[in-house]
Design brief:
This protein has nine helices and 18 strands. It is an alpha+beta fold and 382 residues long. It has a six-stranded mixed β-sheet with strand order 1-2-6-3-7-16, sandwiched between helices. A hairpin with a 7-residue loop joins strand 1 and strand 2. Helix 1 packs antiparallel against helix 3 and helix 1 packs across helix 9. It is elongated, with a radius of gyration of 23 Å.
């Protein structure tokens, strides 16, 4: 096995990088909290600068500053790109103080699985490769900062910059949390619509004089919620706000419809459904309108991604590691944008864990080493 020394180095660095993982996960960084996201970035930049790695920054006014860290910046072969994001979902304080806790097998806390664990996999991989003298290709770690909101805060600037930095890469490996033995080669896109309903306020005792905006929204919501085909199109209406007091007919209401689509045709079906319900009067006296809040492109099956998976599996088999089966994912990811930009992509090669986006998020500690071995074998041999 060509990577035996690298694997031994990963084991020797394991405890150090578990601590780094805990450190950056204790820095709470919800997407909208630029100060926290940038604090995580500064921690990682300091590590990179100590190792002499090149640092590029894409400054942002609202979102955190996106970062590219490059090892072997002067190497002349095509680069390998690794990717993760620094922003998390849960509001500040959701996990208590400190935010992270560990037991003998797992780490719990905001972003330990999605996606700070994956970022640490990349850092450990790069450190082990550097210590073992790897210098064939530039290895760049691209750190996104508003991934969880589809790059809305940066008006897509961060993901466009990441796609530009990844141009010409022999492979782009996104380190979102993963399922054991799987590689993401397909993903759904996301189209999120804000729907606003207007009615007429009235006293509850004379409710027939009013037009109940929430009742109108209820009819619309139930129509949209009929989309539940994981293979093609799903809709979830996850938030609703409206009304003023229990004894007043609500004059306004707003809810959000989150569609996950596989193809552009599916996305068109979603938009037509939204147009139809917003133009249909279910409660006399009510009207409705909609706007597209955010979107993420889908990642349909592409031959270049299949070819990359075949190449990776040859490498893993040669190094005595578990090969990967192709996987289709229902959530959004930066990998979709990068794939659309013409770059070969494999997704979900990060930490093993679960319950992301919840207050029970966790990751398996030992998967840090196993995932770093997998990634280092790929980078070394590709």
């Amino acid at each position: 096995m060509a990577c035996e020394k690298i694997f031994e180095t990963i084991e020797s660095l394991y405890e150090e990088y578990v601590q780094i993982w805990e450190d950056i996960s204790n820095i709470e960084s919800p997407t909208s909290y630029k100060e926290g996201v940038d604090a995580v970035g500064k921690y990682i930049i300091a590590l990179a600068e100590k190792k002499g790695w090149k640092v590029d920054i894409c400054p942002q006014a609202v979102s955190g500053d996106a970062i590219c860290i490059t090892m072997n910046a002067d190497a002349t072969e095509a680069p390998v790109s690794l990717s993760g994001h620094l922003d998390t979902v849960q509001p500040l304080g959701s996990f208590g103080t400190p935010a992270v806790r560990k037991d003998a097998e797992k780490m719990y806390g905001p972003g330990v699985h999605d996606c700070k664990g994956g970022v640490v996999v990349a850092l450990l991989t790069m450190d082990a490769l550097a210590r073992c003298g790897y210098n064939k290709r530039p290895v760049q770690l691209l750190l996104q900062t508003d991934e969880e909101t589809g790059s809305r805060g940066s008006n897509k600037e961060t993901i466009k910059w990441i796609c530009k930095m990844a141009e010409g890469s022999v492979g782009f490996f996104n380190l979102e949390g993963h399922g054991v033995g799987k590689a993401g080669i397909e993903r759904k896109g996301i189209a999120r619509y804000e729907i606003t309903v207007s009615g007429k306020q009235a006293h509850s005792g004379k409710c027939d004089d009013g037009a109940n905006a929430i009742a109108q929204a209820a009819h619309m919501l139930l129509e949209l919620e009929k989309f539940k085909d994981r293979k093609t199109l799903t809709c979830n209406c996850g938030t609703i706000v409206g009304g003023s007091t229990p004894n007043t007919v609500p004059g306004s209401c707003t809810f959000v419809a989150d569609f996950r689509y596989s193809t552009q045709e599916d996305k068109d079906v979603a938009e037509e459904a939204v147009k139809k319900v917003t133009s249909t009067v279910y409660v006399e006296g009510c009207t409705a309108s909609y706007k597209l809040m955010s979107y993420r492109v889908s990642m349909p099956l592409r031959q270049r991604n299949l070819d990359l998976l075949d190449k990776v599996n040859e490498i893993l088999a040669k190094e005595g590691l578990v090969t990967l089966i192709p996987n289709k994912l229902t959530g959004g990811s930066d990998a979709s944008d990068v794939s659309a930009a013409g770059i070969p992509v494999l997704d979900n090669l990060g930490i093993c864990g679960g319950k992301s986006h919840s207050e029970n998020e966790f990751a398996h500690l030992r998967s840090l080493a196993s995932c770093a071995k997998q990634l280092s074998a790929i980078v070394y041999n590709i």
